[in-house]
Amino acid sequence: AQSVTQPDIHITVSEGASLELRCNYSYGATPYLFWYVQSPGQGLQLLLKYFSGDTLVQGIKGFEAEFKRSQSSFNLRKPSVHWSDAAEYFCAVGGQAGTALIFGKGTTLSVSS
Amino acid sequence: GAGVSQSPSNKVTEKGKDVELRCDPISGHTALYWYRQSLGQGLEFLIYFQGNSAPDKSGLPSDRFSAERTGGSVSTLTIQRTQQEDSAVYLCASSLWASGGNEQFFGPGTRLTVL
Fold this sequence. Notes:
The structure holds two protein chains of two kinds. By secondary structure, chain A is an all-beta fold. Chain A has no helices and twelve strands.
């Protein structure tokens, strides 16, 4: 079955500390992987994507993610979290154009001062 | 350029009424998707349009849900005889049709509340 698992429902990180959000996927074809962020009352904003090539991808707002095929993982990282990063983060997997994205349940990030 | 827009941003309706939700995709994007975001269910795919091809309706939860896309651009999602379990945020996304990856751009959503 095709699925995305985000094991952490809620994470709290101190401002300035590093962050890692976990994502594991199961997909029958070549996976295209995404991380989206959603602030309260807002739509989804794409942070970064992995299609092929270099397994470490850089995104907006200082985020990066690493694709590990052997572990079926696509974890999101940021070296130093800012208070404005508090939001809900979704990992998603899809195939080529025309396929629906399958989303994880999301991880809510809180940032403490 | 302009992103995906959706209207209305909020809709409150009574159980049993019909509602229409509108999506304007990014200009030039030929693929359009509807998703539903609800507590406990997360983000679920509803329907997908690509150009003039028959839509992929595999995610529609019941025959009360339908969608159309006119002129390959604007799309309307219709829910007939709304039920309380239809309360959710309905998100529209669009993408370019291209081989390879499937980067979808999302609108702000329509929050539907069924009383």
